[in-house]
Write a structure and sequence with these properties.
This protein has about 120 residues and is mainly α. It contains 3 helices and no strands. The model has no long low-confidence stretch (mean pLDDT about 85).
């Protein structure tokens, strides 16, 4: 009997990935709202620009806002990249394995032709 790791389910990986991004976005949105006194919509928009590495729509006005934004930039971009890797990693691993097999087949074919 084989045991599957609980993270092998694409649905579970998708839920964990979404939860990570939602948590980081909610933290950033709430933080910008509190520090910079922006509306929640503007704060969310600001965080979405930071998280997707497009850059902020405007510069924070306070020193605390600038420091918080800097920290959230590292955290949010890293979280989005990690979530995408966690979600699509098995698929890219499969593509890698298929590529390695095809490469080895081509090498074997070339060696056979050389003889």
């Amino acid at each position: 009997m084989t045991h599957r790791h609980p993270y092998h389910s694409p649905v579970r990986r998708g839920l964990y990935s979404a939860a990570l991004v939602v948590l980081v976005m909610a933290t950033g949105t709430f933080g910008i709202h509190r520090i910079e006194k922006l509306s929640y919509v503007d704060s969310f928009y600001f965080m979405s620009m930071i998280a997707t590495a497009q850059g902020p729509a405007f510069a924070p006005q306070t020193a605390a806002g600038k420091i918080f934004t800097s920290l959230m930039a590292f955290l949010s971009v890293g979280s989005v990249v990690a979530a995408l890797g966690f979600l699509f990693g098995p698929f890219f691993g499969l593509l890698w394995r298929i590529g390695v097999v095809k490469f080895e087949e081509e090498i074997a074919l070339l060696k056979k032709e050389k003889k």
